[in-house]
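Fold it.
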Amino acid sequence: MIGGDGADEIFLGNDVFKERGPESRAPLLDCAEPGDPLFSHLPRFLSSRIGDFYTSDFKAALSGTDVIGELRASLPTRFFAWSPLNQAAYLEMTTLLSPYLLSSHGDRMTAAHGLEGRYPFLDHRVFEFASALPTGSRLRGLHGKELLRRWASRILPRQIEAGGKARYRVPDAQCFFLPTSPSWIGDHLTPEALGRVGIFSASTVGGLVRRCRAGLAPLGETQAMVAVLSTQLWHHQFVESALFITPLPAAEASVLLGDSVPVLSPNTSTTASHADTGN
């Protein structure tokens, strides 16, 4: 399956680049100073509402964690010599494209359905070519992917080339509370289930569930609802339901790794032993 992932990131097509570009009119100053290397992405990083639903104990356990500070400390030295647009592109690729879009939206979804994704825009030659272009060839004014648009205008029908991008959004949290929704969703959001995990407050999540059911939750809260339910499911699957299997004694193993010496049974030849252990 061919995917277009990477085109927006390397050819500056996302709105976040327009907000960082010289013609930006976006009101970001409440989040950071324009000279801040994270200026373009701080609104996204600081908009999460998930912390509003943690228990007091979990908040206390996280009190010394500074993920924004960790991100700043991880930036390579050369990052600070790049233009603001190229800094924004690096952040978009390392905080969204690689760990989220290509992982959760890409590999996990395709592998779950027996597909293999192929992403031509992430071919290293395309990436190297785009990275060497001046930013004006990728973002002209407030028009992203400028070079791709000019190239496409020569080979695509006019109605496709001139058409706007169809925005998509993952179904919001209200879809979890339809009459046709499976019962296990509610099972993981009860006070008892939330209490067993100990991450989210039963009272605040209860209010969130009521707002989502009524269709009154804003976008930030619907995203938080997805995060709450995902965490509850993850804990149930990999902590509460985890299987712990006691390993066999080494003497009963037919294949040993490392420097272990295989224990030969009376009926096992030296040749067979060497084949079993990869020697």
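The CA atoms of residues 78 and 133 lie 17 Å apart.
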